[in-house]
Every structure is written in C-alpha cells, then in structure tokens.
Design goal:
The strands form 2 sheets. This protein has a 6-stranded antiparallel sheet, covered by helices on one side. It has a 3-stranded antiparallel sheet with strand order 6-7-9, covered by helices on one side. Helices cover 43% and strands 17% of the residues. It has 305 residues and is α+β, with helices and mostly antiparallel strands.
C-alpha cells in the first residue's frame, strides 16, 4: 500500500493558484473570496516538476497498454487475462487520479462547518472525501486483482507442485482486504480537524490527537516537500493521542506535542486553512466564536486580519 501511495503522489499536475479571484464563484456556490490572504513565505510557489510530468506520461502509457491487452485477450477468448488486465488498468487509473487529487489544490466551502463532538459545538474542517475514497478504491482493486489471481493460479496449477505464486498473491490480497475491513469497522476513516473554545482535536485517517488551548504556544507554517501548518504545544502539554489501528498507520502522530496539518489531505484552500488555524491558535481572544456561525462566516469571507 505504501508503494502505491508513493507512486500516486508522484503524479502531479499544476495546482490551482492559492489566490482566488475576488468576486468569483467557488464550488460551494458562494463568493469564493472577499479578502486576499497572503501565502506563507515558508511555502514555495507551487509548480509542476519534470519528474511529475514523466510519471504521468509513464502511467498513461501503462494504462493504454493494459487496456489494449485486455481488449485483445477478450477477443481471443482469454477471459482471465482480459479480467486481470482490466483490473490492472483500473488500478493505474485510480493511482493517477489519487496523485492528481492529493497534490492538487481544491476548495469545497461545505467542508468547513459547525458540528457537535461529545455534545460540544466545534468548527470542523473535514479531510478530503475524494482522497480517502480513492485510496479505499485502490485497495479494493488490489484485493480483487491479487486475491482473484491467487485463486485462479491455485485452481489451474493443482498437482503441479507448491503454488508459490498463489501464496504470494494471496498474501497481498489478504493484506489489502484487511485495509477494507478496517475501513468498514471505522478504525480507518475520513478525518477532520475540530476547533472548539476548549482546544483543537485532530482525527486523522488512523489516529486521534487533542491539545487544550492552554497547552498551545502558537502555530507556524513549514514546508517539508509539501505545505504544512503546525500547531505547537509546550513540552509539558496535556497531549491526548492514540492510534485507531495497529496495522495501517497511514498517517502518523508526531513525536512531540503538536498538531501536524498536512494541507494535501483537505479539500480546502491550503492558504485559507493555514490562516484559519493560525487565527485561533495565536489569539486566545478569538476562540469564543469557535463552534458558532461567526466562525463559518469568517471562513467564507476569508476574514483573518
């Protein structure tokens, strides 16, 4: 799964510039901006690199070849070859889509909303549903590709010695199937960032983390190959955290007390997300509006002076 994610994130198209057009319509049907927000100086201007273009070209060629093999096999009556070539083609298409969505910049206003957690109102910024569901679809395709292949190899080679290939493909299929089981059980799920008057809580795909505001020292922007915002806590912070699954730690908790926000995981403009979080993390006087309509109105107006 990690190798598939690595390949997918190499497939990058030019992100949409962070600066919106004043008065233009956003995907949520409202005015996309009333205030220009400055991109953090720590984040370089997004651009397409040669490696990303080369990766996209290679995967496109692989998809074309797999599709042709599938069609040719079907015409020759080779049903198994047609099925698995088609599944491999689908996996490559999903991989390309994942990379484009994961590294591209999008904005969905409805992903910033007021919600309730344990009876308390919070301002919630949800992780991208499309990124999460694309990864789940990739794992489902791997399960069908490897699991089905293992069964067919075993049935076609019985009595011909140890079915090594069947065992290998079967192990990969079981591994990816266990990912799907974790999703169905809720141990892996689309995450969100939740800000309340009491603190900031992060539900990643595979972990939970919480810091009360009294433990927060402030926030800063960093760039470790991609734009991030860090909500930094004091060394003696009352930091609550836990993993929700043992096997698939698709995102990891930081080693020290902080909330690490990978902006690629959100269907929200990264610059808006940074200013939203920093506004409340750096100014205690503003936190009373969290969990109210005032916080949503501010986010829609991009009103973070």
């Amino acid at each position: 799964m990690i190798s598939v994610m690595h390949l997918a994130t190499e497939l990058t198209l030019s992100p949409i510039p962070a600066r919106p057009l004043v008065g233009s319509q956003g995907t949520d049907g409202m005015q996309s901006s009333e205030r220009y927000l400055t991109r953090p100086v720590e984040w370089p201007t997004p651009r397409t690199d040669a490696r990303s273009v080369a990766s996209a070209v290679v995967i496109s060629v692989v998809v074309l070849v797999a599709a042709l093999v599938s069609v040719g096999s079907a015409l020759e009556g080779a049903g198994a070859a047609a099925r698995y070539s088609l599944l491999f083609c689908l996996l490559m298409v999903l991989t390309m889509m994942f990379g484009m969505v994961f590294r591209g910049s999008t904005h969905r206003g409805q992903d910033i909303r007021t919600s309730s957690i344990n009876g308390s109102a919070v301002t919630q910024i949800r992780y991208s549903a499309l990124v999460f569901h694309l990864m789940t679809a990739m794992m489902a395709t791997i399960t069908a590709l490897c699991g089905g292949g293992a069964i067919e190899i075993y049935l076609n080679t019985r009595g011909e010695g140890f079915p090594g290939a069947s065992v290998i493909f079967g192990a990969i299929g079981l591994f990816s199937a266990s990912y799907l089981a974790a999703v169905l059980a809720g141990r892996l799920q689309r995450g969100s960032l939740m800000l309340s008057s009491d603190g900031i809580r992060q539900r990643g795909w595979s972990f939970e983390s919480y810091l009360p505001w009294e433990s927060v020292a402030g926030s800063t922007a960093v760039h470790h190959g991609f734009p991030e915002t860090l909500v930094i806590a004091y060394s003696n912070a009352l930091w609550e955290r836990r993993y929700t699954t043992r096997l698939f730690r698709t995102d990891r908790l930081p080693l020290s007390p902080l909330i690490e926000i990978d902006t690629r995981q959100f269907a929200v403009d990264p610059v808006l997300l940074h200013h939203l979080v920093s506004f409340y993390a750096n100014d205690p006087a503003t936190r009373a509006e969290l969990g109210t309509d005032a916080a949503i109105t501010r986010a829609r107006a991009r009103d973070y002076p």
